[in-house]
Write a structure and sequence with these properties.
The complex is a heterodimer of chains A (about 190) and B (about 400).
Chain A (H helix, E strand, L loop, with lengths): L2 H14 L4 E10 L4 E12 L6 E4 L6 E9 L17 H13 L5 E13 L2 E11 L5 E11 L2 E10 L3 H15 L1 E2 L5
Antiparallel strand pairs in A: 1-2, 2-3, 2-9, 3-4, 4-8, 5-6, 6-7, 7-8
Chain B lengths: L1 H17 L19 H19 L7 H14 L2 H5 L5 E5 L6 E3 L4 E5 H4 L5 H16 L2 H8 L3 H12 L3 H9 L1 H10 L3 H17 L5 H17 L10 H17 L10 H21 L3 H14 L4 H14 L4 H15 L4 H13 L3 H14 L6 H13 L6
Parallel strand pairs in B: 1-3
Antiparallel strand pairs in B: 2-3
Classes of the chains: A alpha+beta (about 190), B mainly alpha (about 400).
């Protein structure tokens, strides 16, 4: 057997055990991010994500759900400001919108909706937006947010606007409705 | 960030200057019949492609009156020989709070809103347009591009330099290779000096005061020093602004010591005033509160009795949230209400501040007035939630 074939087989064996995608169905609990949610069938969790947990059915470029918890005192990457003490849910939504607007990856961005909503039984907010990627793909996203000092929780669903957004929207609604904080923040 | 940008901008300039030892081509206005050379035609085609991409990017500032005004100022500057050669100079405005303007070889000039709001009069606008137009007239883009050793390196360096500026820095690579050269690094010192000289000539031929060119660049340099930040674009860098200042001062002292002309402050302010608030909004979105405050205060100076400026100042303080900002915001919202007692958004601002300060009675009154004045408000659901919460809490207004 040639040397290159042996190397290829070794690589195949090594990478076979490193799949970053793990199927999820039913309850998903993240003690690190202090939440629990219920996932329907076919969703997979992406392992290497930092600062949150990411799930998809068809691949990240086509649709994903990201559940994140970020320290309120940490400045958002594009707006360069943090969630100040005493900030209202509406002001938190306003800041997230500014951060979206300043995101270099999002062209022709439009905020479709910014309304109060509930997340995990707490008063939060909902933002709906659309944009085009640098490659020209039109995407649509929904963010349910909850500023609960010292954390800001965000549940984001984003997908290619055509076909994929509507396809998994009901699944996202189920995930959102099942979202609960494991422990009440202090 | 200052050091970061300075290093990258220095790299950019070095890359650009490396490939600039070419023979000068005759300017467009000095030819009997100008026709782009074959490879120049290709550059023009590429310029049109980059412009189409830029125009589709959502970065264009849509204000037809201001665009018409800028194009009228440009039309006064364009030499008759250039117009007769069929080269159309056209000004397009980009919503971008960073300091810059750049010209494509085919005569399309893009001006950022960020540099427009820093100007004081029409002569300063003419100075900037005259400088940029001169690059087109002297075919600088074509000369530089034909000899550039590594244009992809220019783009990569532009992206690195622009990265900390989010979507506004992104423009550095949305413009493409041609635009990046013009917008980010500028041309060789000799070509920029040539543009300074021709720009002044064009200003004077149109009757503008050439001393305003010096004032503009000095003012931009002061702005950068006050903010203690280097921006990724040509007119946002100290060394290139210093070059402009020294060059123009020398020309004014030696060639035009007695030159005087028209400044055009009133007309300029009339066209620029709405832009001041729009640009302030863009500044706030990237956390540039000092720059935003200057824009808003300039607007208030121009229109002290209009509520919008006072309201925006209140919004700036509310969003900045530093010590004392809540009181500053309240005072600005109150000024807006004094200008127009029917200004709904100012009441909402007052409501938000009072709500956070637990001044429930005042908050309730302000929110109720807001909804009364603007029943179909897009944020009515938030206001109703505040009112419900206020109603369920024990009355404890101060």
């Amino acid at each position: 057997m040639k040397k290159s074939s042996i190397t290829a087989i070794i690589c195949l064996l090594l990478f076979a055990g490193c799949d970053p995608w793990v199927p999820v169905e039913g309850e998903f609990k993240s003690a690190g991010h202090n939440f629990t949610v219920e996932f329907p069938q076919h969703w997979k969790r992406y392992n290497p994500e930092k600062g949150g947990v990411v799930f998809t059915v068809d691949g990240l470029a086509l649709q994903f759900i990201r559940i994140s918890r970020t320290p309120a005192e940490k400045a958002l990457p594009h707006a360069k400001r943090n969630f100040g003490k005493g900030m209202l849910q509406e002001e938190a939504a306003e800041l997230i919108i500014q951060d979206l607007r300043a995101n270099p990856e999002m062209m022709n961005q439009r905020i479709v909706e910014n309304t109060p909503d509930q997340l995990g039984g707490h008063n939060g907010f909902k933002i709906v937006y659309t944009y085009r990627t640098k490659g020209g793909l039109k995407k649509k996203g929904v963010i349910y947010g909850l500023l609960m000092q010292p954390w800001c929780y965000r549940l984001t669903y984003e997908a290619a606007e055509r076909h994929y957004f509507a396809k998994e929207l009901p699944a996202f609604a189920r995930v959102k409705d099942s979202f609960r904080l494991l422990k009440a923040p202090y | 960030m200052v050091t970061y940008c300075r290093i990258n901008i220095s790299i950019l300039v070095a890359i650009l200057l490396f490939g600039c030892a070419t023979a000068d081509l005759p300017p467009i206005d000095e030819q009997k019949s100008f026709k782009p050379l074959a490879d120049e035609e290709r550059i023009w085609k590429r310029a049109r492609e980059e412009q189409a991409r830029l125009d589709r990017s959502g970065h264009l500032y849509k204000n037809p009156e201001l665009s018409d005004y800028a194009n009228r100022v440009a039309a006064k500057l364009v030499p008759g020989q250039v117009r007769s050669q069929g080269v159309a100079i056209e000004i397009r405005i980009l919503k971008n709070p960073l300091l810059n303007a750049f010209a494509y070889p085919n005569g399309v000039i893009y001006v950022h809103t960020g540099i427009l709001v820093k100007m004081e009069n029409e002569a300063q606008l003419a100075a900037l347009l005259g400088h940029e137009m001169s690059h087109t007239i002297h075919r600088h883009a074509f000369e530089s591009y034909r000899n550039a050793k590594n244009t992809s390196a220019v783009l990569v360096a532009a992206q690195i330099a622009a990265a900390p500026f989010g979507t506004y820095g992104l423009l550095a690579y949305t413009v493409g290779a041609l635009g990046a050269t013009a917008a980010v690094s500028g041309y060789s010192q000799g070509r920029e000096s040539e543009a300074d000289g021709t720009g002044l000539e064009l200003m004077m031929a149109a009757g503008y005061d050439p001393r305003e060119a010096l004032r503009l660049f000095q003012h931009l340099k002061t702005e950068l020093e006050e903010q203690n930040v280097e921006e990724p674009f040509f007119f946002g860098t100290h060394p290139r602004l210093q070059e402009r200042i020294e060059n123009i001062r020398r020309l004014l002292d030696t060639k035009y010591p007695d030159a005087r002309g028209f400044a055009g402050t009133a007309a300029f302010n009339r066209h620029i005033s709405e832009l001041l608030l729009d640009n302030a909004e863009a500044d706030i979105a990237v956390g540039r509160f000092t720059s935003a405050r200057k824009c808003i205060e300039k607007y208030i100076g121009l229109h002290p009795s209009r509520p919008e400026g006072h309201y925006r100042l209140g919004e700036l303080y509310r969003q900045r949230g530093e010590a004392g900002d809540a009181d500053r915001a309240l005072s600005a919202y109150a000024a807006a209400v004094r200008c127009d007692p029917g200004h709904p958004a100012a009441y909402k601002g007052i409501g938000l501040i009072c709500y956070k300060q637990h001044r429930r009675k005042q908050a309730r009154e302000a929110f109720a007035t807001y909804l009364q004045l603007h029943p179909g408000a897009g944020d009515a659901a938030y206001i109703k939630r505040y009112l419900e919460e206020l109603d369920t809490k024990t009355e404890g207004s101060r």
